[in-house]
Structures are given as C-alpha cells and as structure tokens.
C-alpha cells in the first residue's frame, strides 16, 4: 500500500510539472504573438507612451530580473527620455531606437 501511494504521489507530481510546462509555453507564445502584432501596429517606438505610463511599463519590463531596483531606476529614466519601453522582459530594443542607442560613458547599454 505504501509503495502504491508513493507511486501515485510521484505520478501526480510528474503530471503537474508536465502540465505546467505545456501551459506555460502556450501562454508565452500567445504573449509573443501579441507583442509582434503591437509592434507591427506601431504601438511601440519612440513617443508611443506618456510619462505617466512609464512606471507600469517598467514594472512589466523588470518583473523577471533579479536586479529589480536598478532595472526600475534605469528603465524609468530611459522611458522619461525616450517615451517608450520595448516589449517583453529582455531584448527587443530595436523597436525603440532611442532606448537602444542611449549608452553609458563606457559604451555599454544604459537602458535595460
């Protein structure tokens, strides 16, 4: 009986992990398609936001980083200057040229 319960418990855990991976991938694909569609409509790019929208967009952009505070600081600084935040959590800077081209004194990217 104990072996049966252990086997059943293991199966339930395995099934939940597989299910979460499958469903997580579906959600990610849907979000990515929405981002591409919005970029095609011109919803991203320099001047596409108002300064009041920067905190919300930067919260979205920085939500998956382990360096949340510096990400938020520089994202909001860049958003106030460029009035745009690229789609997604990482990359896609080509959509917002000002955000992409603003560099530090050492030549590294200023905006996350």
List the helices and strands and how they pair.
Elements: H1 2-41, H2 54-61, H3 68-82, H4 97-101
Protein name: Gibberellin-regulated protein 6
InterPro entries: GASA
Family: Belongs to the GASA family.
- Summarize the biggest pleated sheet: none
Q: Indicate the overall shape.
A: elongated
Distance between the termini: 54 Å
Give the amount of beta strand, in percent.
under 5%
Helix tally equals 4
> What is the helix content?
55-70%
Number of strands: 0
What is the gyration radius calculated from CA atoms?
20 Å
- Could you state the order of secondary-structure elements as H and E? HHHH
Helix and strand content put the structural class at mainly alpha
Low-confidence stretches: none
Mean pLDDT: 77
InterPro entries: GASA (IPR003854)
Signal peptide: 1-20
Protein name: Gibberellin-regulated protein 6
Keywords: Signal
């Amino acid at each position: 009986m104990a072996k049966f319960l252990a086997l059943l418990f293991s199966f339930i855990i395995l099934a939940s992990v597989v299910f979460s991976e499958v469903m997580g991938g579906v959600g990610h694909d849907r979000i990515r398609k929405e981002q591409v569609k919005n970029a095609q409509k011109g919803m991203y790019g320099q001047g596409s936001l108002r300064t009041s929208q920067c905190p919300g967009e930067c919260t979205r952009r920085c939500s998956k980083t382990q360096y949340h505070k510096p990400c938020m600081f520089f994202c909001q600084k860049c958003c106030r200057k460029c009035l745009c935040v690229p789609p997604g959590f990482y990359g896609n800077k080509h959509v917002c040229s000002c955000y992409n081209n603003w560099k530090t004194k050492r030549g590294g990217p200023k905006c996350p």
